[in-house]
Each structure stands twice: as structure tokens, then as C-alpha cells.
Amino acid sequence: MVFADPGEALARARALLDADPSPLDASVAHQVIGIWQRDFGDLRLALSHLRRARACAARADSADREADVLATLGVALVHAGRTREGLAAFERGVARGGGHTRARVLYRRAYVWWVLGHHREALEDVRRAVPVLRQAEDVIWTARALTLRATVHLALGAVERAEADFTAAEALWDTTGQEHDKADAVESRGLAAFRSGDVPAALRLLDEAEERYARLGTPTFMLNIRRCEVLMAAGLAPEALAEADAAIRKLDGIGGQSTRKAELLLAAARAARPAGDPHTAIARAALAVRLFAGQRRTWWEAHARLVLIEARHAAGRGSGRLVADAAAVAEKLASFGAPAAPEASLLAGRIALGLGWTADAERHLAVAARSRHSGPPLARLTGWSAQALRAQAAGSTRGVLEACRRGLDVLDDHRMTLGASELRARATEQGAELAALAQRASLVSGGPRRLLVWSERWRATVLSAPPTRPPADPELLSGMTAFREIASRAEAARMEGRPVPALEREQRRLEREIRSRTLHMRGEAPGGGDRFDVGRLLERLGDEVLLVELAVLDGRVQVLLCGQGRVRRFEAGLLAEAETEAEHVQAGLRRLAHPGAEARLPVVEAAGRRLEELLLGPAAARLGGGPVVIVPPGRLHRVPWALLPSLRERVLSVSPSAGSWLRARETAPPPDGCHVLVRGPGLATGGAEVPELAGRYPCATVLEDDEARVPRVLEELDGAALAHIAAHGAFRADSPLFSSLRMADGPIVVHDFERLDRSPYRIILSCCDTARFASVGADELLGLVTALLPLGTAGVVACSAPVNDAAVVPLMLALHKGLGGGLSLAEALRDARAALPGDALHQATGWAFSAFGAA
Fold first, then answer.
1. Is 475 exposed, middle or buried (0-12, 13-18, 19+ CB in 10 A)?
2. What pLDDT band is residue 569 in, cutting at 50, 70 and 90?
3. Mean pLDDT score of the chain
4. Bridge-partner residues for 853, per DSSP?
């Protein structure tokens, strides 16, 4: 019962002890309490009860009862870090028990071998136990043994064997009432899904397991460890670190298992390094190494040493000793048959390359490169990374580019199994090194055209195919409705000066639930989306339009000027300096949004000139007089490009990638699309442009006041030719897909737009911060505009800074006047800026808006 209904089992065991039981019954009761405390509570109390259980069994003179207790005690001792005592208890248990009882003891020793990382010994004990358990028709323990054997197979990389055992165990669990064991089986299936490369299924199954554990009221430390691993593969390292640290605090609070603490520390160390915190990674990994060593868990210790070496290398340390340490860990992991062995060889080769030890590097990289042809996607990616570094060391540009192409193809296939745009974007981080290697090789020997191809190869890839539409999930839809209601109430409370902590907590809970459900979506699009073609781009640009793609190599901006049938390259300034200058410009625009800040105008204009030098360099003089499309890297998404002197008076548009611009250019407007005008609440001007625009577009659908509710707005936006939305915008840097526009019934968020069959062909967002993005992955942007572009929107006008509501009105009216005359968004925005009054307030307002896409 302790794994069917843990709380009830604990209560019955305590009641039995209060009733003056016989030694045999007292032994069972103390053992149940010991199991409960071992797995769900205080390990010190567990050991006390299990020793009393053994003493009672000895008084009852029952060899099988004593053997069973010794097995439970052995597990507890190992979890307490007292490995030698634990294994000794098992030796006595195996000797004391007979037949069926011995099989149960062997199963639990196999579990301990797995905990210790002795996988061959674990498989041997399970092999001996399973036939006896089956012969005794012991369904529960047979299912446990099959589940354990599957878990060991996963640790050794044998995914197909694991799945066969999980399937057999699940069939047995369905015939029992063992709810905790069933939850554990779901959790294990999640791990198997992850090992086979299905991240969305893994997240869904782990969430389901957590719900089952929550109903039982039991802790989930092993699940925390496994979810950290999946979150890491999904590019969500900061969340994995937060989950591991929270679990460590909870485990320490209940005096839980030392073995689990070591594993959680390892999970935290693995997450801290890609989360940008190598020093935390070093601290967590070093402590994990000490704990694993003390627990005699050499398999785990080797994995922790690998993470420790990676963290030290990420912190800037490189030495011959580090190469030797990495090579030793690789050898140890290979002897265990651990799938992580190629990672260690790759690390040894990378450090050796940094020291100029080419012969040693080649030896280690050659070993790592063997993994490129088999295994799950991220293991093959490790192999192709090693192969690319080998080719680079050998001076083979062709070899570098081929290895990078093959590696990124593997990651493309993995990325497209992910349905959520956030996961697709974050997964690109794992290909950043390959993309940089290919760009560097292209710069050295391939000319500007090849550099453009590789700049595009791993830029804004999330926009190359529409995200999977969220399912018609009633729970998801009701969650979105509840989220809007709570967010609306919280906003109203803030405006009235009332406290909102409870509402904010509930809003965050609903956001987590919504996000969790969207991360479960599996991708449907085959392949990696459209392949970029330079010839097609140049043909579309013609002789008039120039596309300026900014690539960043080794911290310096490379300007690729595309048009008039050719691609030219110019070198500009340092990216870090440009980022700093862009922040100064943003601060200046915020000041200029308020009357009385005219003195800041010359300062902002001077910053614009410095930005032009840093970002365009000598290319600024080669732009001619025609339209220009700017393709910036993700880290420069907040630059107000119209402020740069050479771009200020021309037709200017911005695109996340050249490929994205091409798709927008080739997107046809809907033949019978309507016009939609939306006015949200709380604007200083009340959205004053909307009534006047309604007069210009007599057939337009106007949504305002109570009609501007999210369901109705989404219904009208779907397939519209032109949408104009005047509403307060809010950018969420912490969760960009919850960036929003305020409607009458609460916020409309990016997740809502992703439900559209086709987003509006053109959309104008006349509010603050709608063109702000979060830069994630290798070079991806998450935000409102980037959500619209792959869904059928060919052009967007949006704002990257706070603006003055009153000054926006004449800009918008002038913009629509140009559209009415047949101009594109970029042309109409250029003319609208020129039509504004010449004061600082209106100038800053014009600079803050950009046209995205090609419509």
C-alpha cells in the first residue's frame, strides 16, 4: 500500500504500532514507516524505523521477513551515502532470503546498482529476479523489475530495449492499484521519449507524472532531475537551474536522500553553464563530485567531473591538466558505455586546440566524431561539431562547411519536431558554434556571397515555417480565458492603487500552465523550412532595392550589401559598442516622448551618427538613393534605424532575415480581405485616429469599447487585408510570448495570435513597445511582430520605444493617407515622418516606428 496510497499506508502502520502488535506485525509496520520516510521524508527517521523493523523480524524468527527488511535498509543506507554498509546489508539479505523473497531482494539490489551507476551488475540481478517473480505471478514486483531494467537500458543508450520493457511493465501496472508506481512508469516513459528525441512528448509525460504525484502528496525529486535534463535539451537552461535549486532546498528541508541531493547538484551544474553562470556550475559540480565519490558512485562521479571540466573551461581556464582530466573522464565514461563519452572527447579536443596542441586535439576529436552517424540528434550534433573542428585544424574549408552543414541539418530535423515557436527558437543555441565556424570559414575563403548564405543558415530560423497551431484543448482555452480575467482585474487594481500580490501570483500560475501546455505540442512541418537562395534574393531585389544584412563575426559587424546583382562586404565597428550606443538612443527617445525634453534632440541625433559608423561603416556611402531593407542580428533589434542619417529620408524596412523578407515579398494579399480597426481601453488620446480612419474606410469593421474583446478581435483579424490596432502594448522580457495588447476583456498575447489560420496581410500597431523582442537561441527573436510574420503577415508597422500618444495620431493618419494612395507600408511611413511637425516630440515619434517585412 505504501506505493498505492502512501498517506493511508503510513496512517495504518502507525495505528498498528499503537495496538501492541506481534513482533512479526511490528516489523511490517516499522518497515512501512521506514519506506515512507526514506522516499518521502526524513532519511534519519527512516533508518531508525528500519533498524527496529529488522530487530522485530529477528525476534519473530522469520528469515524471509528479515531478508526483506535488510533489502529496504540497504536501499536507505545507500541513499544516505553509506554505500559500503548498504551493500553489506544486501549480502546478508540475499543469504537469508529464499525463492520469492530472494528475488525481491535481488530486484532492490539491482535498483541500488543503478543508483550507484553499476549498470552491468544491475542487469545481472534483474535477470536473476524476473523469472522467479513471474513464476510466482507477482505482478507488482515483476512490473517494478521491468521498469528498472528499462531505466538501466536508457542509461546505456539502448532506447529500443527500454521501450519494450516499459511497454510490458505498463501492461502489468494497468492491472494493479499501485498509483505511485504508475506515476513512476509515466515518468519513465517521459525519459524514454526524451532519449528518443521527442522533447514535447517528454515534457507532456513528465507533467502528467507530476500531476499524479501531486494527487498522492509525494515529493518528485527524481522527476525534477529528469525534467532538468529535458529543459536543458529544449534550450531552457535558466528554468532547469531554478527547478534544480528549488528541489535541493526542499530536499534539505525534509532531511532527504543524500544520493538525490548529489544528482540534483549535478543537474544544477549542467544547467548553470548554458545559463551563463559558469562559477555556479563550478561550485555545484565540485560539491556533486565530492558527494558521488563519498557514495562510491563512480559512474555518476565521472559525469559530474565532465560538467566540472566544462564549467572551468567556460570560465576561461585552459591548461594541459584540463586536457588530461577531460581525456581521463572520456575514457572512464567509455568504459561504462555511457552515451556522454563523446562529449568528453570533444571537450578534450576543444581545450587542446585552444592550447595549440593539434596532435592531441586530432586524437580526441577523432574519437568524438565517431558519434556523428548514430544515436539521438544531440549526440550526432556532438560528432559533427568534432568533425568541423578537425577540419578547421587541418585547414580544410570544404571539410568545415560540410561538417557544419550536416550538423545543422541534424539540428533542423530535431527543431522541427518541436511545435512551440519558443522551443524552436531556443533549440538553435546548440548550433551556434557550427554556424560561427561556417561563417568564419566563409569569410576567410568563400567571398561575401557564401558568407551571406551561412549568415542566413542559422538566422531567424523559427520564422522559416509556421508554428504548430495550439490544439483545440478545452483546458488550454479555459486557461487563456481565466488568464485574461485575472490580468484585467490586476490591471484595474493597480490603477486604483489596490494591492495585487494575490492576483499576480494567480496570473503567474496560469501563465505557467498555458506555457506548459503549448510546450507539449509536437511539430508537424517536415524538414527545416525554406532553403535560402542568393540568386532568388538578388532577382527580387532588382536594381533599385538594397538589402543590408549585418553579420557578426568575432565581435565585429560585417556588412553584406545585396543588390544590383551582387553581394559586397564591408567591415564596420564592434557589436558591443553598437549595443551600448543603441541603449543610449533608447533612453533618449524615452525622454523625448515627454514635452519639455527638446534639449535632448541633438544628443540623440549625435548618437544616431555614431550608430551609423558602428553598424554600416563605409557601406553607408554606397546605399544610393533607393529603398533599403535592413537585416540586423538579434542583439540589435532595438535600434531605431530611421534615426541613422543615411536612412532617415529613404524608404526603409526591417526584416529578421533575408529569407523572411523574401517570403513576405512573395506573400499574396487576400483577394477579399477586409479592413479591421481596433481601439483598446486606457489610451491617453482614446485612440483618436480610429474614428477618423473609420470615415476613410467605410466598409471597415470597427471594434471598440465592449466589442474590442479578444475572441471577437481574433475572429475579425483572421485573414484580414489590413488591421490597425490602437491599444496599450506591454513587452515581457521574462516571457516574450506573453507580450500583449490590452483589449476590453484583458490582454491579447502572442499565444492568441498563433491560433489564427492566417494573420492580417498588413498590420499597424500604433502603440508603445510592440516592436520589442527577446533575443534567444543562436540569433532568434521572440515577440509580437515575429509571431505574425510566419503566419501570413507580409508587413507590420510597430514601435520599439515608448512614444507620446498624442504625437502618434498625426503620424498614423499620414501613414494611412499614403496607404490609400497605393504605397507600401515602408513608403507610407517615410512620407508620414516627413509630414510631421519639425519639433523634437514628433521627430522622436517618427523615429520610434519601423516597417517590418515587405508589404
1. exposed
2. very high
3. 89
4. 795
Name residue, grid cell 572512464: 332
Which neighbouring-strand residues pair with 723?
Answer: 676, 763
**Contact, 791 vs 753, CB < 8 A?**
yes
Residue type, 300: W
The continuous run of DSSP H or E covering 751 comes out as: helix 750-753
Query: Is the separation of the CB atoms in 764 and 797 below 8 Å?
Result: yes
pLDDT digits (tens, 9 = 90+) for 838-848: 899 999 999 99
Rounded Cα distance between 630 and 641, Å, is: 8
pLDDT digits (tens, 9 = 90+) for 416-468: 777 666 666 676 777 888 888 999 898 887 789 999 998 888 776 666 666 66
For residue 189, pLDDT over 60 is answered with: yes
List, for residues 516-530, the tens digit of each pLDDT value. Answer: 777 777 766 545 455
Among 764, 682, 681, CA closest to 724: 764
Are the C-beta atoms of 799 and 844 separated by less than 8 Å? no
664-679 b/e (C-beta count within 10 Å ≥ 16 → b): bbebeeeeebbbbbbb
Is 764 in contact with 556 (CB distance < 8 Å)? no
Identify which of 561, 551, 571 has the alpha carbon closest to the alpha carbon of residue 634.
Answer: 551
Give the separation between CA 417 and CA 114, rounded to whole angstroms: 31
CA 102 to chain CA centroid, nearest Å: 45
pTM, whole model, 2 decimals? 0.78
CA 244 – CA 372 distance, rounded (Å): 30
Task: Name which of 1, 9, 80 is nearest 47 in CA terms.
Answer: 80
DSSP state of 178: -
Q: What is the per-residue pLDDT for 762?
A: 96
792: left (phi over 0), alpha (psi -120 to 50) or beta: left
